[in-house]
Structures are given as structure tokens and as C-alpha cells.
Design brief:
The chain has 141 residues and is mainly beta. The chain has one domain (4-140): Porin (Beta Barrel). It contains one helix and twelve strands. The two termini are 25 Å apart.
């Protein structure tokens, strides 16, 4: 799989790379050093750093639902990705849209205005890789 770069806002400048994804690993900025892995994807789980320990599971993704840690309980669904939108918990209400995903652009809330683009990426990501990127962008930057 080719490297996918994640940029601040609408930028495509290398100086604005937040993180990048290669082989299921999310790296800091433009790095590909193993010491710069923020999180990694293995199957349906996102792990901290380079870890593969069950105690280091950040999220588990199943059917578009993103569960905290190893959980599969409905009460532990942090957000749901459906039809290009990220909803709070299990909601599908417009008022509960956290972000709108369109053509590699991630918009704040239900917006589609260029000024509301939080970040963008320049390639294809699996849903699990996207969740790993979301985690990296939200919790590291």
C-alpha cells in the first residue's frame, strides 16, 4: 500500500503534514521511523504505538461502529461512521454529526464549507486506518 499523508485543513504542503499512514501504521508528520508510530491497525483493532497487546487497544471497529478498547458493548460505542458522516455514539441524527467526510476532506460537523475542513488526506484508507488517523489527529495535534 502506498503512503497516505494527512494534512492540516486544506493544505497539501509537506510542512503541513500532521501524520502519515503506511502499512497500517500511523506515523508522526513525514516520519517512517518505528519510534514515531503513534498507533497501528491490526485487523479490526487500533493499538497504541507499535503495540499488539490487548491492554493497548484504543478502539475496535465493527460494522462502522467504533468501540472503546476491546469492548463490543453498545454503551462503549464512541462514534459511528455511516454514509460519509461521523456520528456521536450510536446516533444517526443530523444534530449528532461530529464530522462530514467527503473526497478525503474531513469537515467540522455537518459542514461542507472549505473553511470548515479540519484535515484532509491524499489517498485511500481502510475504515480502521481512518479511525487510527482520527485518533492521531484528535489526541496528538
Amino acid at each position: 500500500m502506498p503512503q497516505v499523508k494527512v494534512y492540516k485543513g486544506t493544505s497539501s504542503y509537506s510542512s503541513d503534514v500532521i501524520c502519515n499512514v503506511k502499512d497500517g501504521k500511523v506515523f508522526k508528520k513525514n516520519s517512517t521511523y518505528s519510534s514515531d508510530v503513534l498507533c497501528n491497525v491490526s485487523g479490526s483493532r487500533i493499538f497504541k504505538g507499535n503495540s499488539a497487546y490487548s491492554s493497548d487497544v484504543i478502539y475496535t471497529v465493527k460494522d462502522g461502529k467504533v468501540y472503546t478498547g476491546n469492548s463490543s458493548y453498545t454503551s462503549d460505542i464512541e462514534f459511528t461512521i455511516k454514509d460519509g458522516k461521523i456520528y456521536k455514539g450510536t446516533s444517526s441524527y443530523t444534530s449528532d454529526i461530529i464530522a462530514n467526510i467527503d473526497n478525503g476532506n474531513i469537515y467540522h460537523g455537518n459542514s461542507s464549507y472549505t473553511s470548515d475542513i479540519e484535515f484532509n488526506f491524499d489517498g485511500k484508507l481502510t475504515i480502521e486506518e481512518f479511525v487510527a488517523v482520527w485518533y492521531a489527529v484528535k489526541y496528538y495535534y
